[in-house]
Design brief:
alpha+beta; 6-stranded mixed beta sheet; 172 residues; 3-stranded antiparallel beta sheet; 41% strand
Length: 172
């Protein structure tokens, strides 16, 4: 028999050529490491599989779109708008996109404050009512323009993401 290492009972044992085994009381912890990794992976999968409640995801999408406007990221805002969007006076998605781009170009500073949102869920659709105050201008101390609206919006869940498909806004 050749000398070397053998794994016996989760411990490495050193074997010597004369057949007399000398146990190396060295536990490398391979079993513990493996179980720890498996536990971490299992918990990660469990957390990833647990879905965030629909209302919380919808509120998160509304907040992300608000932040995108404030940071003048028109494309990120439009990611939350459905292809078949319809708004005031026949506004479609392309017209909304042009309006958002125009505001980003005209205003060096954009502020958007949303009032408390009232969310009504109906399966994979929702109606959200809220007030909004938008400000824009050159970025100096006082905004050049301020406007307040009451907004009623329709949302639809598409591939796990809420998208705005309808909005009606009335000046306050």
């Amino acid at each position: 028999m050749r000398g070397g290492l053998a794994l016996r009972r989760r411990r490495w044992e050193h074997t010597v050529p004369d057949g007399k085994g000398e146990a190396m009381a060295r536990d490398t912890g391979i079993g513990r490491v493996t179980w720890t990794v498996m536990l971490v992976v299992g918990l990660s999968v469990a957390v990833a599989c647990s879905r965030t409640p629909p209302e919380q995801r919808l509120r998160g999408q509304l907040s992300a779109m608000q932040q995108a406007l404030e940071e003048r990221r028109a494309a990120d805002f439009m990611d939350g708008v459905a292809e078949d969007f319809a708004g005031n006076r026949g506004m479609d998605r392309a017209a909304l996109q042009q309006a958002v781009r125009a505001q980003v170009l005209v205003n060096a500073d954009i502020g958007l404050t949303l009032g408390p949102a009232q969310v009504e869920l109906q399966g994979d659709r929702a109606t959200v009512r809220f007030s909004a105050v938008a400000s824009g201008g050159s970025g100096r101390w006082v905004p050049d323009r301020v406007q307040a609206w009451e907004i009623v919006s329709g949302w639809r869940e598409e591939d796990g993401q809420w998208r705005l498909y309808y909005a009606e806004w009335t000046p306050k």
